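Most newcomers find our protein records easier to grasp once they have seen one. A learned vocabulary of local backbone shapes supplies the integers on the structure line. Here is such a record, shown just as it appears in the course material:
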Amino acid sequence: MPRSMTGFGSAEVQASSGRFLVEIRSINHRFGEVLVRLPREFTPLEERVRGAVQSRVSRGRVEVSIMRDNRAARIRAIRPDTELAAAYTQALRDIARTLGIGGEVTLPQIASFPDVIKMEEAPEDVEGTWPLLAQGLDEALDALVAMREAEGTRLAADLRTRLDRIEAGAKEIESRASAVVADYSARLRQRIAELVGEIPVDEQRLLTEMAVFAERSDITEEITRLRSHVAQFREDLFNQAGAIGRKLEFVLQEMGREANTIGSKANDLDIGRAIIAIKGELESLREQVQNLE
């Protein structure tokens, strides 16, 4: 079944470094585009996240947001910089000797200088956290794909109804096409009779004119191709897996081309009305297909 390009999915995972919320949104787009937002420490995972999404979604603009909430306390270590402390101590002694100032350098004095005592946090365990993030990403993708499939099913039902109307219009046109030449012949004879009255009409000339009109207005091939395109549309819509939206757009272009040709060749009011109805359905189909993956 076809899938829509719009959807939403989310999931939560609990890791040692905190609780993560994964949200995925997708909207219509001519191509496939994946935007990823991660906590700064997890930026190295961006390509993995993008690859996971692209393996499940072929078309549409997809925004992935992974946010950390309730960040767990990270292990901290206090580290003295003894070399820097020794340099400070020597500097103070040099100043005291130069200025003739007495007194000893004390530990509180040295400890108060910048960077003598440093507090360091343990590095983020990105690789260790990735399996849990990947699990949350899969859950959010499952929800996103399920929503896209549900919307695709609703779209397919509407598309099927419109295809039925186009086929009914093609059938109506076909039944009317056989009478177009006869109607033209009757109108032509009536017009000639009104113009020439009792003067004999060259029957052979009249038959030739009707033959030319019949050939010029023959729409048999166009109707056949229109029906073939409708059948192809159905086949792709309901039996082809994967992204089908762009292919269906191309098939619709071909259907529109045949409808235009029929309308220009038929030279008949009833057929013209049927073509207008078909074009209306084609336009609705085009709008709906733009939502399909």
Notes: Residues 152-289 form one domain.
